[in-house]
Amino acid sequence: xxxxxxxxxxxxxxxxxxxxxxxxxxxxxxxxxxxxxxxxxxxxxxxxxxxxxxxxxxxxxxxxxxxxxxxxxxxxxxxxxxxxxxxxxxxxxxxxxxxxxxxxxxxxxxxxxxxxxxxxxxxxxxxxxxxxxxxxxxxxxxxxxxxxxxxxxxxxxxxxxxxxxxxxxxxxxxxxxxxxxxxxxxxxxxxxxxxxxxxxxxxxxxxxxxxxxxxxxxxxxxxxxxxxxxxxxxxxxxxxxxxxxxxxxxxxxxxxxxxxxxxxxxxxxxxxxxxxxxxxxxxxxxxxxxxxxxxxxxxxxxxxxxxxxxxxxxxxxx
Length: 318
Description:
By secondary structure, the chain is mainly beta. Helix content is 11%, strand content 34%. The model has no long low-confidence stretch (mean pLDDT 94).
């Protein structure tokens, strides 16, 4: 079976830029508009990935998941109604809001969806900052004081990572991406975000964006003190019940296939290139769904990829 690729879905964001165009040579929908996100593999009701070519061309990801689940994705996904991941590229031309995603135990009360994610830094300007977790000594009371005075950025823990580093963002972790990053994001299939601070700026529509302070305060893990980036040279860079992500270095002329031949994986090209068995070539920034039983992809030059799989222990649950 051949690999499957999808047409990206581009999202305008007040903090976005044009790097999806300049770095990855992707044609963006409207000239001069700020695009902050490319949803490359999405099974959201409001945002469906569509197969770009091959025998499944023009089918949605949800159709594939519903009609050809075992054939394409493999075994032990019986009780999962939608494709369980959402995969993106983020272009942070300006700072994103400081925000939090709800833990599972808060979803019934707040009405949102739990969301755990991971970030891989594809590119970073010098001194670009991530805001992740809480500074040492910050309490819920002092955080509320910062909220009241518009200084939340001063109580959030700050990291200045470089390209090639990664970090895990569990639900409940306060976080924001500062300006100057291109990031690959792999997350649960969720689009629930509670903004706690948005730099007092106006949105694309010229109005202040909504904040969700009450919800955020119920979700933030105030014991999450000064987290750090993942150690370099670790092959497994994220491993949780929802996904496992490995960073793999391939020498020229070597191949990569699914770790479990009975289950799919997603390949993200960081640098170098990969060639399919049918001759199609894939470049940095490409996301490739490697179906169950698919032929391996071959690196023509030294290549770095992320390979995402779903732990089998989680996929028979709802």
